[in-house]
Amino acid sequence: ICRLLAELLDPKGCHAQKTKYLDLFYEKFLHNKFKDLNTDKITVIKEDLTKQLEIEGKDKRRIDIVLNERNGHYIPIEVKINADEQPDQCEDYLKQADRCYKQRGINKDPFVCFLTKDGHSPTSIRESFLKEQIICISWIQISEWLDDCISISKNLNPINEILKQFKTVIDEYMEVSMNNTKEILNYTCVGNVTNEKEVHEIAERIKSDKEKLSSALKLYPAYLKATQDIWVDFANYLEEYIYNKYKKRPKNTDGKNWYLTYDLPNRYSIMIQSNARTELSSEDRLPDISVDLYKGNKLSDNYPDILPTLFDLIDDNKKEEYSKQIGDWLAEKYGLLK
Predict the structure, then answer these.
(1) I need a labelling partner for 56 at 20 to 30 A (CA). Which of 71, 155, 225, 282 fits?
(2) What is the pTM of this model?
(3) Contacts of the segment 138-144: beta carbons below 8 A, 24+ positions apart
């Protein structure tokens, strides 16, 4: 993918279309950053070695693609497919471009194109202001650029066919990627708290940094413990509310970390429980509660109104509101079943 992209951008590429595809790329992605690029003077360099990084105690790195304008711009393009960022990677590429401009006696701000699945910003930059010099591009946008390339190559059957196949490869790659993300979101049931872009951004920040990954690992069980504590607080509050108003205590004297069970007449019972847990589970989801009526061991009825998630129960007013609603429903069922 990277090599074919470089070939299409190369004015001397085997497509023999000179700067046509590069011009489209420039207009779509670069023109708003600088308006003085002369595409006729561009040479495309694949896997260009960074220089002078050894001064900073680093090995040389290979930049995927460089648009190198003779005596002018030097534009690194970092292509991310499934690989992670390396520490300081984009920042080092900016330094490489900056050194190149100084050697050429040119007063320009360096820029780096960062091509990823969803066009997110890189994490391999320490200074936030440097991110303004990153041109973020998504593979979806590359697919759109290929549409433009196909449009101007309608009469060039062999080349047009290659462009279409290249677009198909990228579109299929993106479809698989988005389906995987949706499956993860559906599996963890967090779709109504976060969104795909946030998941991507957080995952990118975490996966390239051992310390951040370690912190995330500590946060996850802490999150589970916090939701468990919220449930226990609510269970205690609800128990006291029901006792104070209806003089009823739950059947279970232990296990309140998981559920409260109230006996009703004629072998009925009401179980109030939460799916909050303190151990890791393959069924982790947004913590909520359920209120169900049982006849013996068989489910007979469900609580008819909307029940809270544990996010709702952080609010003391909500805790009081739901205690009243659940307690009143329990009392109503008790009265009907006597």
Answers:
(1) 71
(2) 0.55
(3) 139/115, 139/170, 139/173, 139/174, 140/174, 141/28, 141/29, 142/5, 142/115, 142/170, 143/167, 143/170, 143/171, 143/174, 144/28
